[in-house]
Amino acid sequence: MPATDIVTVAIDGPSGTGKGTISKRLAECHGWGYLDSGALYRVFAILADEEGILPTDIDKLNNFAATLNIDFKTDSGGYHVYANGRDMTQLIREEGAGTIASKFAVIPEIRALLMGLQRDQRRAPGLVADGRDMGTTVFPDALVKIFLDARPEIRAERRYKQLKEKGFDGSLARLREEMAERDDRDANRSVSPMVMAVDAIRVDTSDMSVEEVVARVEEIVNERLGASGVNTPRE
Ligand code: C5P
């Protein structure tokens, strides 16, 4: 099946907008695959950093990438990310991992290195991909493009709550600053910055519950599926 016949839903936006939760729910409901592209950047950056490689050392990063095998698996325990067989799922969720990821993510060569891995995740019958440049760069031909957004204070509070549940003991104010710095780096890098694709639909989730966002996203997806004539079974 040509890649463009595979239903692709691109969900972009900054952190704390509910991208991961919504994307996973959508993928599960339709029986589609799920790609957490941020996890890929996080894994790559953490491991390169562990090896002492700087984001600017392109030769070393190329050699390092050649030894790296990143794998995604969903089982009863949820969505897992492995690097050379090592389960990285917990480690990458720390806020520091997001910050390191965003420093490596500004380097065009690193983005190019990770491109193939992301595109390889597109398999029939469909894929929901979440990130910053899914609709603009990785899957510009996606059938559905959604840009999730929310006010910065709401996003920081959501993230804070999530991290607190995992034992985070930093302050909300500091977290908000870190998120603002990360957004700024993501939105202003020269290659594949975080911008809304011209054909994306923006959903501001600030005053919406998860259920309301899921319902709105479903509505957008179903409209596009209907308009395109693609008929996919729902579980
Ligand atoms: O989505 P998540 O917060 O896990 O992403 C971590 C970082 O990885 C982002 O802040 C961004 O710098 C980078 N990233 C990216 N492009 C993507 C996904 C993530 O640059 N498609």
- Average pLDDT, rounded to a whole number, is 92
Radius of gyration: 17 Å
Name of the top-level CATH class: Alpha Beta
Order of helices and strands: EHEHHEEEHHEHEHHEH
Q: Domains counted in the coordinates: how many? A: 1
Major beta-sheet overview:
5 strands, parallel
CATH superfamily: P-loop containing nucleotide triphosphate hydrolases
Strand content: 15-25%
Helix/sheet category: alpha/beta
Biggest sheet, strands in spatial order? 2-6-1-7-8
Characteristics:
alpha/beta, 5-stranded parallel sheet, globular, 8 strands, 9 helices, binds cytidine-5'-monophosphate, 48% helix, 235 residues, 3-stranded antiparallel sheet, Rossmann fold
How would you characterize this protein structure?
With 235 residues, this protein is α/β, with parallel strands linked by helices. The chain has a single domain (3-221), classed as P-loop containing nucleotide triphosphate hydrolases (Rossmann fold, 3-Layer(aba) Sandwich). The chain is built from 9 helices and 8 strands. It has helices at residues 19-30, 37-50, 58-66, 95-104, 108-119, 134-138, 152-165, 172-188, 210-228, and strands at 7-12, 33-36, 70-75, 78-83, 86-87, 126-131, 144-149, 201-204. It has a 5-stranded parallel beta sheet. The protein has a 3-stranded antiparallel beta sheet with strand order 3-4-5, covered by helices on one side. The mean pLDDT is 92. The structure holds cytidine-5'-monophosphate. Cytidine-5'-monophosphate is lined by residues 15, 37-38, 41-42, 98, 101-102, 105, 131-133, 182, 186. Cytidine-5'-monophosphate binds at residues 15, 37-38, 41-42, 98, 101-102, 105, 131-133, 182, 186.
